[in-house]
Design goal:
The protein is α+β, with helices and mostly antiparallel strands and about 425 residues long. The protein is about 35% helix and about 25% strand. It has 13 helices and 21 strands. Strand 15 and strand 16 form a beta hairpin.
């Protein structure tokens, strides 16, 4: 039976990459590819005015030092620097309710390494606007907002996707940057494995009386971790995990009642607190794609993996996917290889699969170890944290890991 999509594939390719997903990872990959002379079409399901919203809605990201390097190499950091809050220290506490201002465990200080701050907090609105402006200013990138992919197909010669309006886009490689429920992965026959933690993250930003001094706090409570991450000014981002039922009840409360629940967990070390921006929730799951690539298809970000946010590595893991895939395909293009050849995509899998599986396993075990109030486990983990805190070499290793500076770094993340 004649297939019009296959007929289109055989014609001259319009793009090197067709990137499905216009969030953060997709545009970052298009910009990275453009630096090597590769063209991309970013297919974005959301309208442009949603992406360009200027008001602070409470969303922000913890960018590891390696991710900041990548944004700098992509030409974005100059516009972001004034809106970024350095994370100079991280304090990890095995706490009880009311202990947030008490140091009970690990202390990581950026001064112990030579690479500057371990990371930066950047609000979603600034990062998205910087990415959109860069896309619009790059001739090698086409950005299609409000566009849905309904079909995709590949042949040995190329790949194509069909949009809801009937448009067919042709290219060499399809990249799924379209989230945990990735349509690209599903259409490529890539299945997932994972489970729910029975926890929900409550996310918001707060304003507070006292300065945070660039210190991030990770407090472990029996129901789940509470992260307090410094934003510019006297503000912090909160990522607070509770059981699903408890989180649903808390999120249904008005702001003042919500704060009444948060205050005893948060403590008073930053003075009075108030809500700044909107509040969000999202269920916590572990979800891994069984393969990161298929014929002329590659997955990045949540399309490839979704982990517990206990180490704050969600976006950083996605950006590392992007940096590695960009490294692999740009080096292949310079050698005259087909950027979507099986051997090329296998290099991406080999580079990222083990690291991602290790990180997923570590965060899963860490969450299970700390999300309880078992006195024996509490004693064991407190002894472990004290031992790490007392060993400078081991502590510096953890600081470099938190900064994303360990392992084999792709070009975009190197100093």
């Amino acid at each position: 039976m004649d297939n019009p999509v296959r007929r289109f594939i055989l014609r001259r390719m319009e793009h090197d990459l067709i990137i499905v997903g216009g969030g953060l990872n997709g545009p970052a990959l298009a910009l990275a590819a453009a630096q090597a002379g590769l063209s991309s079409c970013v297919v974005d399901a959301l309208p442009l005015d949603t992406r360009e919203a200027e008001d602070f809605d409470g969303r922000s990201y913890a960018l590891a030092r390696s991710s900041q390097r990548m944004l700098d190499r992509l030409g974005l950091w100059e516009d972001l620097a004034d809106h970024a809050q350095p994370m100079n220290e991280i304090k990890v506490s095995d706490g009880r309710v009311g202990d947030a201002g008490v140091f009970l465990g690990l202390h990581f200080d950026s001064a112990e390494i030579e690479d500057g701050p371990m990371g930066y907090m950047v609000e979603d609105r600034y990062l998205r606007r910087a990415l959109l402006a860069a896309l619009a200013g790059t001739d090698l990138i086409e950005h299609r907002a409000e566009s849905l992919v309904t079909a995709q197909d590949v042949t040995p010669e190329g790949a194509a996707v069909t949009l809801a309006d009937g448009t067919v886009l042709r290219g060499r490689l399809i990249v799924g940057a379209d989230g945990q429920k990735s349509g690209v992965a599903r259409r490529a026959g890539i299945r997932r494995m994972g489970w729910s933690y029975g926890q929900t993250a409550l996310v918001c930003a707060i304003a507070h009386e006292e300065p945070h001094h660039g210190v991030a706090h990770q407090l472990f409570l029996p129901a789940g971790p509470l992260a307090i991450l410094p934003l510019t000014g006297n503000r912090s981002s909160i990522v607070w995990s509770e059981t699903d039922a408890r989180a649903k009840a808390i999120n249904a409360l008005p702001d003042e009642d919500y704060l009444q629940v948060l205050r005893p967990r948060f403590g008073d070390f930053l003075g009075e607190i108030s809500i700044a921006g909107a509040r969000f929730t999202y269920p916590l799951t572990l979800s891994l794609a069984r393969a990161f690539v298929a014929d002329r298809v590659a997955l990045v970000g949540d399309a490839a993996h979704r982990m517990h946010p206990i180490a704050g590595q969600g976006l950083n893991a996605g950006l590392r996917d992007v940096a590695v895939l960009a490294h692999v395909i740009t080096h292949a293009a310079r050698r005259g290889e087909d950027i979507a050849a099986p051997g090329v995509l296998d290099r991406y899998t080999q580079w990222r699969r083990f690291d991602t599986a290790t990180q997923a396993t570590s965060t899963d075990l860490f969450n299970r170890l700390f999300s309880n109030d078992n006195p024996l486990l509490r004693a064991a983990r407190d002894i472990g944290m004290a031992a790490i805190n007392a060993a400078p070499g081991l502590r510096r290793g953890f600081i470099r890991e938190a900064a994303g500076l360990t392992g084999d770094l792709p070009d975009l993340m190197r100093a």
